[in-house]
């Protein structure tokens, strides 16, 4: 498992923006988990959201991220901005 890879440049902006809106402990930074696990896990209004942060539409998923996405039988979304993350969670 690859750990400690450099996060996308918008990662902190999205993480910190969500924490400011819905609370620090409801936004868990998972970027160092490895194994293709999404970058952020968010709890909001009794639901959990897994968010894969990418810097733009050209950024590709790693093979591990593709494997996680295709085998995960739950919610998973790719986001590129705080606005996108807010829409996925239902804040806008």
Structure write-up:
With 92 residues, the chain is of the alpha+beta class. The chain has one domain: 3-Layer(aba) Sandwich (Trna Endonuclease, Chain: A, domain 1). It contains 3 helices and 4 strands; from the N terminus they run αβββαβα. It has a 4-stranded mixed β-sheet, covered by helices on one side. β2 and β3 form a beta hairpin. The longest helix has 12 residues. The chain starts with 10 loop residues before the first helix and ends with a helix.
Q: Could you write a compact summary of the structure shown?
A:
Helix content is 32%, strand content 20%. It is built from 3 helices and 4 strands; from the N terminus they run H-E-E-E-H-E-H.
> What is the name of the CATH class?
Alpha Beta
This entry's quaternary arrangement is single chain
> What percent of the residues sit in helical stretches (DSSP H or I)?
25-40%
- Uncertain residue ranges: none
What value does the average pLDDT take?
Answer: 92
Termini, distance in Å?
A: 35 Å
In the CATH scheme, what's the topology name? Trna Endonuclease, Chain: A, domain 1
Strand order in space, largest sheet: 1-2-3-4
Broad shape? globular
Query: Could you say which structural class the secondary elements and strand pairing correspond to?
Result: alpha+beta
Beta-strand residue percentage: 15-25%
Query: How many whole angstroms does the radius of gyration measure?
Result: 12 Å
User: What is the CATH architecture assignment?
Assistant: 3-Layer(aba) Sandwich
Count of spatially separate domains: 1
- Summed up, the helix count is 3
Largest sheet: 4 strands, mixed
Order of helices and strands: HEEEHEH
């Amino acid at each position: 498992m690859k750990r400690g890879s450099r996060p996308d440049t918008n990662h902190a902006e999205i993480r910190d923006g969500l924490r400011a809106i819905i609370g620090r402990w409801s936004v868990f930074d998972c970027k160092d988990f490895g194994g293709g696990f999404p970058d952020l896990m968010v709890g909001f209004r009794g639901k959990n959201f897994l968010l894969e942060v990418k810097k733009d539409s050209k950024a590709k998923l790693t093979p591990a991220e593709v494997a996680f996405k295709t085998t995960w039988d739950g919610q998973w979304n790719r986001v590129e901005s705080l606005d996108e993350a807010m829409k996925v969670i239902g804040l806008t």
